[in-house]
Amino acid sequence: MSELKLEVGKRYETRDGRVAFVSFDAPAVLAKIRGDRIWGIIEGSNSTKIWTQDGCVWGGIQNHHLDLIRCLDDEPELVDLTKIDVPFGELDERTQDRLGGAWARGGELQFYSAHCGKWMMAGHGPSYSSNLKFRLKPEEPTYTMPTVDDKVWLAFPGAKSFTWDSGATNPYAHAKSNPDKVEHYGQWIDGDELPANLFGDLIQRGDCPWHMAIVLRPEGL
């Protein structure tokens, strides 16, 4: 405890894992320094506690689970393990430990292949290679895909696909299954725009990105 020196206005972790606040503006629980003692409150508690400057709780050995062991506000923000973009050997020790621990607990790691120019699955834990980057595999986003009722296909015998442009609610009917698109503008081309309110619930846009917003005509219709 001797290396810790409490500061009013900061948050600390107790020995049993809770968060203590040693500064308050609210009159009912005003924290203040008096000699070598500091008043504060523990998260989830309505009563004040007293600590010495080195973090020892005031009140006897039976309360030592409330000793303050580290300052939470002095620690650097945790790195998002799915967004690491530097070699493993250049990461700080804390991030290295977290990434290695995530892999040891069954997390899926990826490494960046300079040869392929993309992230690929790693079959082993992170290593200290001078230029090899590792990250925790990001979770795949989930979307609601668009749907087109069979009644709509029967009403448009010449349509092979329906699409939606970026930001558009109206669908486009296409005479081919692989309509062209212009990535720069977020648009499918060579289609006939149809008013969305024409179909009611028979066509559902979903919430997927525009380049995935295509429904192909089912076989047999």
Give structural notes.
- With 221 residues, the chain is mainly β.
- The chain has 3 domains: 11-71, no CATH class; 81-136, no CATH class; 147-216, no CATH class.
- It has helices at 93-104, 150-155, and strands at 11-14, 19-21, 33-34, 37-42, 48-52, 68-71, 109-113, 118-121, 134-136, 147-148, 161-163, 172-174, 181-182, 187-188, 192-193, 203-204, 214-216.
- The strands form 5 sheets. Strands 1, 2, 3, 4, 5 and 6 form a 6-stranded antiparallel β-sheet that branches.
Q: Which key phrases capture this entry?
A:
single chain; 221 residues; mainly beta; 3 domains; six-stranded antiparallel β-sheet; four-stranded antiparallel β-sheet; 8% helix; elongated
Q: What does the largest sheet look like?
A: 6 strands, antiparallel
Number of domains: 3
Helix content estimate: under 10%
Arithmetic mean pLDDT: 85
The portion of residues forming beta strands comes to 15-25%
Per DSSP E runs of 2 or more residues, the count of β-strands stands at: 17
Order of helices and strands: EEEEEEHEEEEHEEEEEEE
- Rg from C-alpha positions? 29 Å
Residue windows where pLDDT falls under 50 for at least 5 positions:
24-33
Compute the number of helices.
2
